[in-house]
Automatic annotation (TrEMBL):
Its biological purpose: Initiates the restart of stalled replication forks, which reloads the replicative helicase on sites other than the origin of replication. Recognizes and binds to abandoned replication forks and remodels them to uncover a helicase loading site. Promotes assembly of the primosome at these replication forks.
NCBIfam families membership: priA
Reaction(s) the record says it catalyses: Couples ATP hydrolysis with the unwinding of duplex DNA by translocating in the 3'-5' direction; ATP + H2O = ADP + phosphate + H(+)
Broad class of enzyme this protein falls into: isomerase
Cofactor note: Binds 2 zinc ions per subunit.
Protein name: Replication restart protein PriA
PANTHER family cross-referenced by the UniProt entry: PRIMOSOMAL PROTEIN N
UniProt GO molecular function: 3'-5' DNA helicase activity; ATP binding; ATP hydrolysis activity; DNA binding; zinc ion binding
UniProt source species: Berkelbacteria bacterium GW2011_GWE1_39_12
Keyword Hydrolase: yes
Length: 601
């Protein structure tokens, strides 16, 4: 009797591999990578055949019900990638496979037999790695040249982008583009996925889900705007698209191009060792730092004078202010009660008649009475983009003002002053006469090791499109302020990398964030304390005790999320995570494991 070792599409403990007998009638079609249907605890589920054996240690086995797809849904290359992801990101192999690599099969779709699947061949690849630092138009030109060369060699290309709007720039220039992303329907995704599987070589573009397309003869991977936080998966396994793409090029011997205007610190540090770095220099605008440590208004006198001059000269001004709404809080002036989100316990951002949670996006009606003292003296405090619009209108009543803060907002030529949140960076922003950063300091008070990097990345992109720039800050002598004013990435990098070396943050150490969540705050706290105690016990038995830190448990900075309390433990280690701690973490079921977190809040 032949035995199939399969990984079912279900959460399991252990390695998640189960033995099933192979019925004689389907034996000729069974092979590794095939998608089958199996019985599992009283129901039928999908599973992937991982291996075929002649015997099993289990005496009585259930049979495979049927083959769903006779063509393998995963090749050896992507199986190797899935195993690496499972090992590195401390996630079950079955979860890694089905969450990312194998889409739900649509069994009614007819196969196109004119396209024949081929196995990856040992083509003469050089495994080159490039980092290009330039604006998007120049990056795109470089990408298209590399794509053309790769297709001429009859090899496939994978393009990974953080924002689907970028597809519009590639699509007109590339034929037979296969598009894969999470917003497709299951049927659309399966058709695109199956098309990539069957073509001898192809061009696939999309978000992080495109990373797992079953591409044949992979010759080139392009990752644009690789610093984007959207390249980090927000559910288990919490993998980095960029790091996984690097590993895929390593396994496939394909070439890799990563491109950015402002590379993240860790990737730029690593790129200096084994990447060919291409950098485009540009004419930098004049940027002035304004000290607002004693300011009484969001609009400094220097900024007002520049806006006045722009209006007189019929020039345009862009004010960058990353706080939506009409204020920061909706509060009672009698007892200081603050209108908070019931699920996240965070202050709601007030708009005209509504309030919105910045964490879960839930919308609430503004109350007319205080929930604590039942008073009626409620008001919006602080400053948001809508309130800023009113301040601008009060100062310059004849000016045309637009807001760029949400989907649907567009930058037209019919404006004098635009007020923008970070959302505006998704738009194709033209040159602007004056760009002013109003709230740079808001980033600097976040308890996160990447806060300065995120601020530099965001404001650099805004200031680069200006003819003239202004930065309002209460810390004019800070390294961040000076580097931004000079639009000097390398100066910022050198300052930041020295801080991280001193404080032992990535790239000089590896980090794992363990997040505990529970509706019962006490249970959440006890779980984290129990886990920390176990980890410290394992640490004392480890040979790498000197290079290992267990920090916490502590309440998370965002303590409540979706009505659940949150505690966290941070693990720092230098090289390889000790095996006893790795084995312990793999058994945990009440914790979110975030390897290489992009933030700690």
């Amino acid at each position: 009797m032949q035995i199939a070792k399969v990984i079912p599409k279900v959460k399991t403990s252990g390695d998640g591999i189960f033995d099933y007998s192979i019925p004689p009638e389907i034996l000729p079609q069974i092979k590794c990578g095939v998608l089958v249907e199996v019985p599992f605890h009283g129901r039928t589920i999908e599973a992937i055949v991982m291996d075929i054996r002649r015997s099993s240690q289990i005496q009585i086995l259930k049979p495979i019900i049927k083959i769903i797809d006779p063509n393998p849904v995963i090749d050896n290359l992507h199986l190797k990638l899935a195993k690496w992801m499972s090992d590195y990101y401390l996630a079950p192999l079955g979860q890694t496979l089905f969450e990312n690599i194998v889409p739900s099969a649509k069994r009614t779709i007819k196969k196109n037999e004119s396209e024949i699947a081929v196995q990856p061949s040992s083509l003469n690849l050089t495994n080159n790695r490039f980092l290009i630092i330039a604006d998007f138009s120049r990056r795109l030109k470089f990408y298209l040249q590399a794509i053309e060369k790769t297709i001429k060699r009859k090899q496939s290309v994978l393009i990974l982008i953080p924002d689907l709007s970028l597809i519009d720039y590639f699509a007109p220039k590339l034929k037979d583009l296969i598009i894969l992303h999470a917003n497709l329907t299951k049927t659309e995704r399966w058709i695109a996925w199956d098309k990539a599987r069957r073509k001898p070589f192809s061009i696939v573009i999309g978000s992080q889900s495109a990373l797992f397309a079953p591409i044949n003869n992979l010759g080139l991977i392009i990752v644009d705007q690789f610093e984007s936080l959207s390249f980090k998966n927000d559910r288990s396994p919490r993998f980095s698209t960029v790091e996984t793409a690097k590993k895929l090029t390593e396994f496939s011997k394909a070439n890799l191009i990563i491109g950015s205007l402002t590379p993240d610190i860790e990737n730029f540090y690593q790129a200096q060792k084994n990447y060919k770095i291409l950098k485009h220099n540009f004419l930098k605008p004049k940027i002035e730092i304004i000290d607002t440590s004693n300011a009484k208004s969001i609009l400094s006198e220097t900024l007002k004078k520049n806006i006045e001059k722009n209006l007189f000269d019929k020039k345009k001004t862009l004010l960058v202010f990353n706080r939506k709404g009409e204020g920061n809080y909706y509060t009672c002036t009698n007892c200081n009660w603050i209108f908070n989100c019931k699920q996240c316990d965070l202050p709601l951002r007030p708009f005209e008649n509504k309030a919105v949670c910045q964490r879960c996006d839930k919308t609430f009606d503004l109350p007319t009475n205080c929930e604590k003292c039942h008073g009626i003296n409620l008001k919006k405090t602080g400053l948001g983009t809508r309130k800023l619009s009113k301040i601008i209108k009060d100062n310059w009543p004849k000016s045309t003002i637009i807001n760029l803060e949400k989907d649907g907002d567009e930058l037209t030529n019919d404006f004098d002053i635009a007020i923008a949140t970070n959302y505006a960076l998704k738009l194709n922003l033209p040159k602007i006469d004056l760009v002013a950063i109003l709230d740079m300091d808001s980033y600097l008070y976040l308890p996160d090791f990447k806060s300065a990097e995120n601020a530099f990345d965001t404001y650099y992109k805004f200031l680069k499109i200006s003819d003239q720039g202004l930065i309002q800050t209460s810390r004019p002598d800070a390294g961040l302020s000076k580097s931004l004013a000079a639009l000097d990435y390398e100066s910022f990098f050198n300052h930041e990398i020295n801080l991280r070396r001193k404080e032992s943050f990535p790239p000089f150490t590896k980090m794992i964030n363990l997040i505990f969540q529970n509706e019962d705050e006490e249970i959440c706290k006890k779980d984290s304390i129990k886990t920390a105690k176990s980890l410290n016990g394992l640490k004392s038995n480890s040979t790498e005790i000197e290079s290992l830190e267990i920090l916490g448990p502590n309440p998370a900075f965002v303590f409540k999320k979706l009505n659940k309390s949150r505690w966290q433990i941070i693990i720092k280690h230098k090289n390889v995570l000790p095996e006893n701690i790795r084995a312990f973490l793999l058994k945990q079921r009440n914790v979110i494991i975030d390897v290489d977190p992009v933030d700690l809040i």
